[in-house]
Design a protein that fits this description.
The chain is mainly alpha-helical and 431 residues long. It folds into 2 domains: 216 residues, no CATH class; 209 residues, no CATH class. Helices cover 87% and strands 0% of the residues. It contains 16 helices and no strands. The protein is globular, with a radius of gyration of 22 Å. The model has no long low-confidence stretch (mean pLDDT 89).
Amino acid sequence: MWRIAAPMILSNISVPLLGMVDTGVVGHLENSTYLGAVAIGGMIFTFIYIGMNFLRMGTTGIAAQSYGADDNDGLRVALGQALIVSFAIAIALIVLQVPIAKIALLLLGGDAETQQHAATYFFIRVWSAPGTLANYVIIGWFLGLQNARVPLLIFLTINITNIVLDLVFVLVLGMKVDGVALASVIAEYSGLAVGTTFALGALRKRAGHWPIERFRKLAAYRAFFSVNANLFVRTMALMFTLAFVTAQGARLGPAILAANAVLMNFQNLTALGLDGIAHAAEAMVGRAVGQKDDNALRHTVNLTLRWSVIFAAGFTLAYVVAGPLIVRTLTDLPDVRETAMIYLPWLIASPLISVWSFLYDGVFVGMTRAREMRNIMLIAAFFIFIPLWYVTQPFGNHGLWFAFMAFLAARGIGMHLGYRRALQEGLNHAS
């Protein structure tokens, strides 16, 4: 488990580091509009690429099951089909870049100068789409092979290259937002070169052939789309919920909006740790399903759940001890600090509430029970979160955070019940 979880935790930690460097480099330019432009441009791609994360999750589950079944042809199909779909999506993003940029910039706002610089950033960085989405596939494929070292190397290559080129392009060559965007493009293809090299090496070690017919015929993609379409809907529902929390915080005033933004860093930090163990669960559960080994499945879930709860308890303890210090570090505005401290107890409790949904996400991905993941997310978002938010509006931001915690808890409870039902059905009913 730790051979998979530890590298993925390190990979997760490297991502916000890159964002900090981007912000720091642009934040030292002479005009603050550059910082706003990178923030807006980066938000557009964050939204797009989070929506495409099903390419990573779906590939992990399918590849892990092929790995467990010792199906080398299946491993080739899992990789090839996902790469073909990722390339098709990337080409669509490039072809539709103008309308996508216009709609996104209209929704996100900003003054004319900031929007102009954000557009410059977007129209350069969009060319990274083929590399970024292919990296999602390769990372997911290697996790399916129980190998987290290659994903770590890919992440480190991307982030180190990006950081170095940020510094060179902006501080040495005098570029602005175009330099930050170009650094991201080059970094993604550098990571792809590393991933492709290791993927070819892994395939050479596994006897098998490429069943070409399973790449040519659309009907052969039925299983792929069945899993990934459901994962996409599930991700959209999650993103809606997070955006709704931000939007309702904004309606409660600028101090609460800023305080909630600070507090969401606690939730994101929790995710960095717990997602690493969930990634291990994806790979190990998928292997057990491929082997049709109920005992290995149960053992994997119990093991990863135990460590997830230990980590969650550690995060809660850390937030009890250092929560106020973290708030003071993240903002020096007195009203935002004071407001954040009022609602900090919700984030102290959050790790122990959200741990179940994080871990079971990994379990369900490994079992490729994407339809149930979708249904549980939709129920939690639209039949738990929204109604509870509506009836708790008199309690203001406390009501909003209560509804969000209930959303996390509902996901965990629903997926636990789904997991118990899956055990009763047996491993031949993965969907």
